[in-house]
Amino acid sequence: MTTAKTNKQNTKRLSPKWIFLIVVVALYLSLYFFQADKMLPILNSYLKLLINILPIFVFVYFLMLLSNYFTDKELLQKHMGESGTIKGWAIAIIAGIASAGPVYMWYPLMEDLKNKGVKDRFLSTFLFNRGIKLQWLPILLTYFGLLYSIVLLIVMAILSIPQGLITEKLVSLSSSDKT
Amino acid sequence: MKINKQKLKQSSKKAFKGFVGVLPIIFAMLLLVSMINNLVPKSFYSKVFSGNTISDSVVGALLGSILTGNPISAYILGNGFLKNGVSLIAVTAFLTAWTTVGIIQLPAETMVLGRKFAIYRNISAFAISILTAIITAYIVGLLS
Asked: Nearest 5 degrees, angle CA A48-CA A49-CA A54?
C-alpha cells in the first residue's frame, strides 16, 4: 500500500518534458521491434545532430546566465509602468528579448503591469519579442546561419511594434462595440 | 560596472536549473527529428506544402501555433523541414508562430490578461508571423 502510494507520488512528480522523452524512447523501442533495419541510419542521424549541437550548449548556458543577471523584474515594472512612447516601446522590446524562462513565469508581472495601467500595446509587444530568445541564439545560428538569424531577429523586433498597436486597436474596437 | 556576486550566484544557479530542465526536450526532439527525417518520405512535405508562398506560410504558421514547447524544438523541427525541401517562408512562419502564438497557453493568458487581449494578441501575432516570414525570406533572398 505504502509502496503504491510512493509510486503514485513519483508518477505525479514526473514533469511533462520527461514524459515526452519517455514517449519518444518508447517509439524507438517499438520501431526496433517492428523495423529493426531502420534503427541504424536513424541512430547515426541522431548522433550527427547531437555532435553538432553539443558545443553550442556552453554558449547557451552563458547567455542564460547573462539574461538572468540583467533582467530585473522590479526595474522592468518601474520603467514599463511609465509607458512613455519611445521609452515604452524600447523597454517592451528589450525586456521581451532579454526575458528568460517559460511565458507563464511572466504572467504575474504582466497582470500587475496591466492593473497598473500599462497599455496593451506594450504588453503585446513584450510578449511578441519573447519569441526572440537570446539564450537560444547560438542554436538558431547553428541551424539557420548568421544572415538568416540576424534578419529574422530584426524583422521580428520591428514588426512587434505594429503587432502591439494592432492588438490594442482590436481590443479597444471590440470594447467600444459593446458599449 | 560593479558585479553583484550574490546576484551572479543566483543567476548562475537559475541558468543551470533552466538549462538542465530543457535537456530532456532537446534529446527528445533530436530523437524525434532523426526518426521523422528517416521515416517520412519527402513527398509528404510536398503534399502539405504546395510551394505557394501564401498557403505555405499559412500552413507553417498554423503548425507553429498549434504545436508548443521550447523554441529549440521549433529550430530543430524547422531545420528538418528545410532539409526536406520546405520553403524558407513556410519554415520562418512556423518558427515565428511557434514562439509568438500560443493556442495551448490561451486559457492561462485569458485568465491573467483578459479574454479580449489574449484572443486579439494571438490573432495579430499569427498574422504578423506570416508577414515576418515573407519579409525575412525576401531580405535573405536579396542578400544571399
From this structure: 100
- Mutate which of B20, B65, B100 to disrupt the A interface (most A C-beta within 10 Å)? B100
- Domain extent listing, chain A: 9-54, 58-178
Q: Residue B135 falls within a domain, yes or no?
A: yes
What DSSP designation does B40 have?
S
- Minimal CA separation from A155 to chain B, in Å: 6
| In a domain? residue B23 | no
Chain A positions touching B128 (Cβ under 8 A) are: 128, 159-160, 162-163, 166
Please report which helix (H) or strand (E) contains residue A114, including its range: helix A107-115
Q: How many domains is chain B partitioned into structurally?
A: 1
Range of the domain at B63: 41-143
Give this complex's ipTM: 0.81
Classify each residue of A104-129 as buried b or exposed e, where b means 16 or more C-beta atoms within 10 Å of its C-beta.
eebbebbeebbeeebbbbbbbbbbbb
A161 CB-contact burial (10 Å; exposed 0-12 / middle 13-18 / buried 19+)? middle
Residue B35 lies in a domain: no
State the burial class of residue A135 (Cβ atoms within 10 Å of its Cβ: 0-12, 13-18, 19+). Answer: buried
pLDDT tens-digit profile, chain A (179 residues):
455 555 555 556 777 778 888 999 999 999 999 888 889 999 998 898 888 778 777 777 887 787 778 776 666 666 665 555 777 888 889 888 887 766 766 777 777 778 777 888 889 999 999 888 787 888 899 999 999 999 999 999 999 999 999 999 999 998 776 55
| Residues of chain A with C-beta less than 8 angstroms from the C-beta of B39 | 38, 42
